[in-house]
Amino acid sequence: MRINDSFAHSSKYALLVTVFLTLVMNIESSADPLHAATPATPRKFRIEKQWNLGGVGGWGLLALDANAHRLYIPRSNRVMIVDTETGALLSEVGGMKNVREMVLDDSGKYGYVTDPTDGTAGFVRVFDRSTNQLVTSITTGLVPAAIAFDRATKSVLAFNSHSHSATVIDAATNQLTATIPLSGRPAAAVADDNGNVFVTLPALGEITKIDVAQKKAIASWKLNPCTGPAGLAIDSVRHQLFTTCENHTLIAINADNGIVTTIGGVSPGSGDIDFDPRHNMLFVANISGTLAVFRRGSSTRYDIVQQIKTQPGARTLVVSHDNDKVYLVTSKFGTNTTTASQELQLRPTPIPETFSVIVVGR
Q1: What is the helix (H) or strand (E) element at residue 14, kind and residue range?
Q2: Which one of 177, 239, 343, 362 has the minimum C-beta count within 10 Å?
């Protein structure tokens, strides 16, 4: 009798345990989808690699062909081409004098480089990306610097600093098709891929919108409270432009009506700015060697989420929209020991053979 009672008691206990475990498993199973839906904390950005490329001279704004794993770097009298998978210097495009900025077409065929030479004549140098050889030079206004490619019209626009104008080039024929006058000295430029190109006019504190098909400026907007707008980036989906300002503000501009919203602050000496549409992030580099990462909180607010210490002078960048990589370039700096003006002697000068690419990722 005691054995039967004990057996009955143990059987009831086992049944209770089984029910309890079943309930726990059901609860955990039902919680799994909720757990899976909770977003993981984004990985932090960090310096992954640094490639020493050496060489002499300064550098201009970068161009990236993510599909071909090519990083293009304007370097004084040439363009360096770097394999972004290995960091190897693949080739250089020569035959230039004083290059500033460059852009790639969307066909994979040509690269376009602004070359103001000695300031008395300006050109856009066109090179074949399969042979890395120059194919033609197109005359522009004086001191071309900023440049943009518009996918909608297959046009290249080179912005002439001293002539206060934009040279329009048909990328299909590599022929000059128009010169668009501007009301001030142009600086940074960006295309929205819908037939519009935007360019900052720092001295006037303005941004100008160009209709490429009409080949004319169709709007100019004051950027108050921003003074001296510098770099320029775009969110084509939300029709927002972004620029950093001399008064250390970060602003967004409505690309349809020019309405300005202050969305953050930036450090003195801010340089390039780029936008990653996949993650709604802005990247701002500054001359002291810090890369600031902003994430979109709303249409009127971007929050700084990280600051990565890079290297002094690393204020030139380009963001890959495919693999969460940011490429920055810089070198070590010294003083100018050549015969030059006092201003140039005091200006930090790149030390030969110390030029490098910094790869930031996560």
Answers
A1: helix 2-37
A2: 343
